[in-house]
Amino acid sequence: MSNETIAKKELLLKKRPSAIHTLYNGFRKGKFKGKIRTEWSNMVAVWPDIVLNRKHLNDFTDLCGLERSDRLPILYPFSLLYPLNLWIISQKEIEVPMFKMLTLRNSTVMYRDISVGEKLRITSLMKGRRFVRKGMEFYIESTIQSNDESVWKNTSTFFVPGMLGEEDTTFTSSGLETIPEAETLSEWFLPAKNSFRFARIMGDSNGIHYSKWYARMMGFKRDFVQPIKVSSKCIDCLPKLLGDGPLLLELNFKGPVYYESELVLKNVGTENSNRFDLYTLSNDRPCICGKLEKL
């Protein structure tokens, strides 16, 4: 039986989506029935007239260990975007068990600096899916505009294990190769303090990011940080790239970065790019691989 195509559904927001409402939607969908019946390409969410909250920005930068500024860090928009994307995924037409999905990759372009006083508009849309080994990947593309000018764009790749279908054997992942021989750029300790507070800033209600008990129940060693937090710290530690212009940031998430861990950042840099990996001392494989470059 061929998939049905849902009628175009545009979700228009007037404020940040409620985490409680999103959780309710996710639970209400119930168990996945084993077959995907619909195409998702007509699902769009729009959040116009966003006025940035300076305190929210300051809280984000403080908890990430960054210096406060009137300009947004490249990953700060995820604190707006993530609850929006979760809200899309929680809709009944998106036949995904929301509590089992993982983020695999992020590709972000920042076309220019964004100031805290600008009024922004976010548009997110489903950009397809494919079955791969052991599950399914799906993609959400998001754009931030200021006065009709695109200033930031992201494509997020999500993975849902156990969702079986006809595997796309032509697909090859564009993941980054590790750089184990790179020089150590920085080391720091990741405390668990303020883990719940940062989860609230990100609009992420998943207990794996602030509850040791819940994370262990879900099969992890303990609670672990949202990758946006440690990735922001990594970027702040990198050598500055020369010149102005758009930035491209590629992030591959290889494994959890547990709280109460010693972290090690390795980097290979040039004038126009930084290729970096983040490790914990207890793991000889990187948890996050990233590349920041000038376009």
Text of the CATH class of the largest domain: Alpha Beta
Q: Which structural class best describes the helix and strand composition?
A: alpha+beta
- Separation of the first and last Cα atoms: 44 Å
Instruction: Output the radius of gyration.
Output: 19 Å
Strand content: 35-45%
Order of adjacent strands in the largest pleated sheet: 2-4-6-7-8-5-10-13-12-11-9
What's the tally of helices?
6
Corresponding CATH superfamily of the largest domain: Hotdog Thioesterase
Task: Explain how this protein is built.
- The protein has 295 residues and is α+β, with helices and mostly antiparallel strands.
- It contains six helices and 13 strands.
- An eleven-stranded mixed sheet has the order 2-4-6-7-8-5-10-13-12-11-9, with helices on one face. Strands 1-3 form a two-stranded parallel ribbon.
- α1 (19-28) runs parallel beside α3 (78-89).
